[in-house]
Amino acid sequence: MSLTGRVALVTGGAQGIGRAVVQSLLQSSAKVAVVDLNKTCGDACKAQLDAEFGDGHCVFIQCDVTDGDALTDAFQATVDQFGRLDIVINNAGINNEKNWEKTIQVNLTSLIKGTYLALEHMSKENGKEGGTIINVSSMAAFLHSPHQPVYTATKHGVIGFSRAMADASAQGDYAVRINVLCPAFVDTPLLHTVEDEDNMGKFVKFKDDFKVRMRKFGVLQPSLIAEGMMRLITDTSLNGAVMKITCSKGIHFHTYEPMSA
Question: Which of 247, 251, 224, 220 is nearest to 238 (CA)?
């Protein structure tokens, strides 16, 4: 599947995993809306990308994804700018056990909103041409730990919601594929928030356990996550897939036992 002329929107797109994915999308000749809360990072990111790929291939939209109206406007601005929408990557995420309500808002509620907005702009049900949604979960959904209970819950939720929506899309003939990406530890700014009491609250006392796990399982580079993301985007046979990326196994898929009566 060629991405030439396709339009993508990436939340949390100015740094970390999102930034690596934006780079890969532009290298594949897609046009990209970089949606991020951090204006400083966003402006710098756009300047770097314009220098590398030329003007007109990407746009930066500052947006707090927990603001539903602002997120709606970001989707509309993308379509206004590029004329269409084909790929949505709901990647924005935080790690905050102290303000756990915010973690749910960013990691799950906003992702659900982003999925529904993507369907508004891409689903055949709405007279559109179809597309692809990738929702970013985490290996925390498979390997929970004591320092991130709410973060873990949100990442479980992403998988459950996304797989159910993938079934709805298939049965409703939306022509939109919905897949999930579950990376292990990735070298991003989020990874370093676990040592901060302002983020972790009382769970900061488990930070040494977290470091032990990092040493045991290793830390991935964002470029490998972007490689997995591009596979989910371009492989048109995948819908409802849950891709895992770990240091030991690389890119692979989770398999589910079929339900028996």
Answer: 251
Provide the pairing of β-strand 242-246 with 250-253: antiparallel
Half-sphere exposure of 47 (CA within 13 A, CB side): 6
Span 240-251, pLDDT tens digits: 999 999 999 999
Per the prediction, the chain carries an average pLDDT of 94
Q: How far apart are CA 186 and CA 211, in angstroms?
A: 13
Tell me the catalytic residues: 151
* Backbone region of residue 209 per phi and psi (left: phi > 0; alpha: psi in -120 to 50; beta: other values): alpha
Please, which pLDDT band fits residue 1 given cuts at 50, 70 and 90?
A: confident
The C-alpha atoms of residue 210 and residue 19 are separated, in whole angstroms, by 25
Rounded CA-CA distance 27/21 in Å is 10
Q: Contact at 8 Å (CB) between 89 and 229?
A: yes
- CB-CB contact of 29 with 3 (8 Å): yes
Once rounded to an integer, what is the mean pLDDT over residues 91-117?
97
CB of 63 closer than 8 Å to CB of 71:
yes
Q: State how far the Cα of 30 lies from the Cα of 228, in Å rounded to an integer.
A: 17
Residue 190 has pLDDT above 70, yes or no: no
Distances (CA, A) of 80 to 85, 112, 190: 10, 22, 31
pLDDT at 210: 78
Report how far apart, in Å, the C-alpha atoms of 53 and of each of 29, 42, 48 are.
9, 16, 9
**pTM for this predicted structure:** 0.95
User: Residue 141 carries which DSSP code?
Assistant: G
Q: Which amino acid is at 69?
A: D
